[in-house]
Amino acid sequence: MASSTISPSSPAKSKLIVFDTTLRDGEQSPGVTLNTEEKIEIARQLSRLGVDIIEAGFPVASPGDFNAVQRIAREVGGLMEGRDGLEPMVICGLARSVKKDIQTAYDAVKDAPRHRIHVFLATSDIHLEFKLKISRDECKARIREMVGFAKSLCADIEFSPEDAGRSDRAFLCEALAVAIEAGATTLNIPDTVGYNTPHEYGALIAHLKQNTPGADSVIFSTHCHNDLGLATANTLAGISNGARQVEVTINGIGERAGNTSLEEVVMNIHTHPDTYPVHHTINTRLLFSTSRMVEDLSGMVVQANKAIVGRNAFLHESGIHQDGVLKNKTTYEIIRPEDVGVTTGNLALGKHSGRHAFKTKLEELGYGGAALSDAQFQTAFAKFKDLADSKKAGVTDGDMHALVADIRSTSLSGPASAQPDDATAEESVSEEPAAVQYTLKQLHVFTGVNVMPTATVTLHDAHRGVDLTDVAVAKNGPIEATYSAIQRIIGRDIELLNFTVSATSVGQDTQGKVSVRIAQSGSSSSSVVSSATASPKPEEQLLTSYGAVPKFSGVACNVDIITASAKAYLTAVNRMVSHDSADNRASHKQRNVEI
Ligand code: KIV
Ligand code: ZN
């Protein structure tokens, strides 16, 4: 890890613990459902990035969630790639203040070399009265019992008083003191609804540190939501007032307007080393590639003007600015783009570039080490050569990012993490990548003005060893026609939940990068169905959006956007088909057990 990418460590500075909750709070973003393979891929990247703790999920929410957290604990918990000088990443599971949740969270994370249980219970009067329907005394009693129970299983316990930002301060101090007595080692202070101002949130952290009995023995943590656009400012105010852990997500994804964004907090500390009394151990050069990975896999497109990782974050449009930057970069740049993994002005690769140049470029863009497997690298290189042949002006960094997204998307397989609610964690299906069933053999699209768009599609079905062709006419354009033809060939009704197309570079020979997210038709409306019973206990009502129906994503890039659209769709379709056959294997296995 290059030392220039890490904020200077000095005895006067405390280490800031970066707790990433992209896979838990981030996954609660409307429309986002990551499957297990995608979660593992993101967890690996977060480990390389130097994150200290990840909240890998909410294990009790569904067998799929349990399985994903357990696999992350087992497969990522011990990884040391890119973590020179660091310990293995702590794997954390979330639990409500309910014994079953806590036990399930512990079972999911316990195989990681370093693990944590995160227990939460609301403390604001609004939540106590209307959601939990319990008194303040009952709230404290439950914290004592449940944090104590968690402590009997695991040494590292985090407690969160949900809606702390609107809780009565005196009561909050009492509740936190109980959590400390019961064994909590980290106290996380959520501004659950993104209500606080930076001044107020900073003062809250300072107050709690000063007035909670036992506060000296624990770490205080921030957890801010972005409803008023203040999540990063509030988090930084928390740090200035004594918080030493921050809970963040990549790209700031999360419930409603999202959570605090990891990259913004880290780069604020990086840019103002004298302002904040902390140092971090994040490899900032991996921020951009990590952001792209989360964007691609979550389907949550990063706004172009987003700080640090937006496409425009380092572009200078006006002549005056361009002139200044050419004379001296610091005239208009406060962050060196390369410090966050953005390369500017570098020569594009061309058709004469060999493997070595290709690999070096990948490394420069944050895809070094084990970011791509050997097989993925070989496929990427072959695709790069094809692309370089067609792009006379050269393959740009944007093309390279899109190429990696395409390769990863095609090779990520396996069922979605949201598995049928009646499967137990132990019965969850095996997730070895299944062979791709459908490949695009031919696509002919007829479209234009005052014509009915028509698509003729031929797919090769590898399972049956046949080519299948269909023609579809659609009034809403060539993509609808193409997708209809594919649905007819494979005999499924598919709902398109998300479709985005973006250019990978500028110029007429740019590629289109298409991301899609699909679900079996008629199933998406149930994606917010609670897994609780018809009249759930108040504390069981939270499980909305968890255990959701499987959704499948695909990414592809091509100079022809209709081809990219067809390929991205097919990637998602193959994953859906592979998930369903894995489900069949699981129910078959279950029947065998019964027999
Ligand atoms: O925002 C919140 O309160 C949370 C808790 C579960 C920590 O995400
Ligand atoms: Zn939250």
From TrEMBL:
Organism from which the protein derives: Kickxella alabastrina
Name of this chain's protein: 2-isopropylmalate synthase (Alpha-isopropylmalate synthase) (Alpha-IPM synthetase)
Enzyme class: transferase
Gene that produces this protein: LEU4
Source taxon at top rank: Eukaryota
Keywords from the UniProt entry: Acyltransferase, Transferase
EC number(s) reported in the record: 2.3.3.13
